[in-house]
Design goal:
With 179 residues, the chain is of the alpha/beta class. It has helices spanning 15-25, 61-73, 116-123, 153-161, 169-178, and strands spanning 3-11, 39-44, 48-56, 77-85, 90-96, 108-112, 130-132, 141-144, 166-168.
């Protein structure tokens, strides 16, 4: 069954924003018609909060957009605000703390990923990449695993010392979804 997943990550949530998150969790936010069958999770810490909602694919985009607009009206500071639709494989971004407008085509790229299938899947998204086996002075981008333990630390240190942009695998896929 296809579904939609909403993810909001908020920085420094104010008491008003936290109260709104709790009302969303309890499905009691005034003026909002909540679709049936939602799975809602709210996590809050001292400096960050998150809202995760899973809904059937029949839930209207306007519902999610209304939640975003409501939190914006409370001056919420978003690190990430996105909606993924599994039926189409697309992601709608309202906001992201990541740079999403990265050009990958015709770049000299080093992948510090262990899974060759993941690398091949990523390469299919890029026009005429020049794949390099290790970081060099002319490397233009390094893509690392989301799992820090998988990354070749020596290559990572070299890339940092050469001021080569480094992104995670997740960042890559978010850029692809944004384009």
């Amino acid at each position: 069954m296809s579904s939609q997943q909403l993810e909001f990550k908020l920085a420094q949530p104010t008491p008003k924003v936290l109260a709104a998150l709790i009302a969303i969790h309890n499905q009691t936010l005034e003026g909002v018609d909540f679709p049936a069958g939602l799975v809602i999770e709210v996590q809050q810490g001292a400096e960050q909060a998150s809202l995760l909602i899973e809904a059937a694919s029949s839930a209207e985009f306007e519902f999610f957009d209304g939640l975003y607009e409501h939190l914006c009206s409370l001056d919420a500071q978003f690190e990430v605000a996105k909606l993924f639709a599994s039926s189409t494989g697309t992601t709608h971004f309202w906001e992201s703390s990541l740079e999403l407008d990265i050009e990958f085509d015709e770049k000299r790229i080093v992948f510090l990923l262990k899974d060759q299938d993941d690398i091949e899947e990523m390469l299919e998204q890029i026009d005429e990449p020049e794949l390099q086996q290790s970081v060099q002075n002319n490397t233009q981008l390094v893509i690392i695993s989301d799992d820090e333990a998988e990354n070749d630390q020596a290559q990572l240190v070299l890339a940092k010392s050469l001021n080569i942009p480094i992104i995670t695998e997740e960042h890559f896929w978010e850029c692809q979804a944004f384009c």
